[in-house]
Amino acid sequence: MIKLDGVGKDYSTDVTIGPIDLEIPQGGITALVGPNGAGKSTMLTMIGRLLRMDTGAIQVAGMNVASTRSKDLAKVLSILRQENHFVTRLTVRQLIGFGRFPHSGGRLNVADEQIISHYVDFLDLRELEGRFLDQLSGGQRQRAYVAMVLAQETPYVLLDEPLNNLDIAHSVRMMRHLRRAADELGRTIIIVLHDINFAAAYADRICMVKDGVVARFGTPAELMRQEVLSEIFNTKIHVVERQGCAPVAVYF
Amino acid sequence: MTEPVLATSSRAVATQFDGPVEPPDLDDSQRRTTGSFATAKGRRRYGAVVVGLVLLAVLFAAGLLGWGNPMPFGTAGFWLIAERRLVGVTVMLIVAICQAMATVGFQTVTNNRIITPSIIGFESLYRAIQTTSVYLFGLGGLVAFTGLWAFSLQLAIMLGLSLALYGWLLSGKYANLQVMLLIGIITGGGLGSVASFMQRLLTPSEFDVLTARMFGSVNNADPSYFPIAIPLVVVSSAGLWLLSDRLNVVALGRDAATGLGVAYKKNLIVVLILSSTLIATSTALVGPMTFFGFLVATLAYQLADSYDHRRIFPVAVLSGFVVLSGAYFILNHVFYAAGVVSIIIELIGGSVFLFVLLRKGTL
Hints:
The complex is a heterodimer.
Chain A: E1 2-10, E2 16-24, E3 28-33, H1 40-47, E4 55-60, E5 63-64, H2 70-73, E6 77-80, H3 92-98, H4 101-104, H5 110-122, H6 138-151, E7 156-160, H7 168-184, E8 188-192, H8 196-202, E9 205-210, E10 213-218, H9 220-223, H10 226-233, E11 238-240, E12 248-250
Parallel strand pairs in A: 3-8, 3-9, 6-7, 7-8
Antiparallel strand pairs in A: 1-2, 1-4, 4-5, 9-10, 11-12
Chain B: H1 10-15, H2 26-31, H3 40-66, H4 76-109, H5 122-144, H6 148-171, H7 177-200, H8 204-214, H9 226-242, H10 244-250, H11 254-259, H12 264-286, H13 290-304, H14 309-333, H15 341-358
Helix pairs in contact in B: 3-4, 3-14, 4-9, 4-12, 4-13, 4-14, 5-6, 5-7, 5-8, 6-7, 6-12, 9-12, 13-14, 13-15
């Protein structure tokens, strides 16, 4: 369980995030959605201890994010940012191997190699594993980074807009991979998404963030309603219900 | 809902794959390994590079010690001369270790392959100290400003400057690496200008003697510095070597490194301090070597062709020693033009710098 307790971040006197009180239960995919500048990424990076909060406390699986050693947290939660600086002379497999660093400290053993192979295959990177990162397309590189984060084998996985720069086919495939990671590997995945329809189709819970606070938190069925979406996104949004499929928000 | 995979032990986790996802078959998983190199060919190439560099290093070192030795080989006189020449070779080894390790470590933590640790003003500081001594005390001052105490004083001032900069980096809320580097460049530029101004006020003879000190040369070094220089170099370079694994992670950037459990800021500061100790020692020992570190690091990235610092460091040190001893050997025994070696190295270094800048894609 991830527990945020009065969490706040002050960028300036005008721009403040929080206070946020939230409990994200274990298991499944939780999507963070909301308009630009609402504080989704801030919230995620604070949970992932990449950004220091100014007030409040965050607990992940009972560990206080601010006071637990980074090394110990790396075995409980992994986080992937939007932009990643990449080393040119690094192959896909070597990058994914870094996911084992919290466990192996840079010396990979046979079990680590098996785990790496597993996540290479899990994200369909088998043919690309010997390629250098600068020889990949944006979408392929994105998948390699997600594989690295999954190879860290942490119960909690935080992803900041992993669908950025991905076309429709790759976005769908990425969400299916994450769905499988949640269902088959039992990971708790927190993901920042821009497209509300992806959240509705693949997430178990949606957390709607607006003006630095959590506006709504619930299942897609509860939140995929015209009045809720229109209010959060400041746009007229229709919700189309389909038989046997996830509801679709139409905003054109 | 399935239980989350708690990664308590790698082996326990590995067995969980037997469920929904097929584990890779045994032969396959044995073949698929993650090494420091992209391919087996890369590993063999690395081995060949190291062997080649070691051979060259031994060749040049032996050449510097024994070539043109006026005494017949094997006599006491031969060994006496070789022993005196050994000082120069030792200095070259120290400088190679200092410049190569410091530059590689510094470039990794700053995520920038076109800057060198001297950017934060070590060399300007060296120039300023030397110029001040001749400006205030005349030629006698410059000549007197040698020996262990002068060496230690210069070292202390240079380390003091860098520690002040990093201390500020440590404490400030808004302080960051870029700002620190910028302040280093500005400090260096200011010191350089002060030194140039003082140099204009010198007499031609004073200026002439000073100029000899302004170019790095192993002849500037004195074996009496070794008791301080060698332990500093051994400790600092061993420290960087032990940080290799963490440097590999830090190279991924601040966020990725933190996510992988590496304390970014702590490692950043430790590497910066170790790098500046090495560069300060090298500068105080032989004088400024602006492009040498850059040249050697760039060469090492190309030759090692690996992200792994455990592979880059040895190649960097070896190529540093080969370049330095090779340049001295050729200039001493082929062109009989000893003393201009740092100019040659800087010429080559400068050309490599321009070349790399213009084709930055391959950095």
